[in-house]
Amino acid sequence: MDRSFEKQYDEERYLFDSVGPRFRQEGSLGAYDLFAIVRWKANRAITRVALRISHVADGDLETAARELTRDLASAHSPRERFVLMSEKWGLRLPMASAILAVLYPEQFTVYDIRVCSALNAFHGIGNLSKPDVRWGRYQEYITAVNRAAPASLSLRDKDRWLWARSRHQDLERLIARDFRKHPQGNAKRTSNPARKPRTLR
Fold first, then answer.
1. Is the CB of residue 201 less than 8 Å from the CB of residue 92?
2. How confident is the model over 66-80, as pLDDT tens digits?
3. pTM reported for the whole predicted model
């Protein structure tokens, strides 16, 4: 575990600058690093994810985290990694995509309800039962993210751009209404400078 705790203050930067590169160098992650990603995505989901992956691995959390991330490292394609997360490990799309985005930021982006609202499409992809159909729709989601944000940005920054624009538009609407009504109550986040937990679907 990296004990440079000041780096963890900005949780998202720590994940993408330290945890992701460590996985790509070593080929697996321990429980601390994996659950740092889970906490970033949705803190309230930690217990549910822990129970799920430890049950699949039939071991403790360190064993489960190593097995899950080694599965990803040994997979032969982005599609195989995507399917593994749901079909073997039982993770739903928002959480699975967050883990994959940290580990493979050029291939995956976080499936996020606010970004879906910004695109005015793709709600409910995670509820599709067939993995090939879900994979196809997720690829369309990535294409839409790439097209909707400035072309000069990386896929990671395009996600940030869309998320921040949506939040900016919400604030403008709130000010226009004198804060009498919040049209995006389910998508609020806290003021922590790091990336805040996303809403699971």
1. yes
2. 999 999 999 999 999
3. 0.85
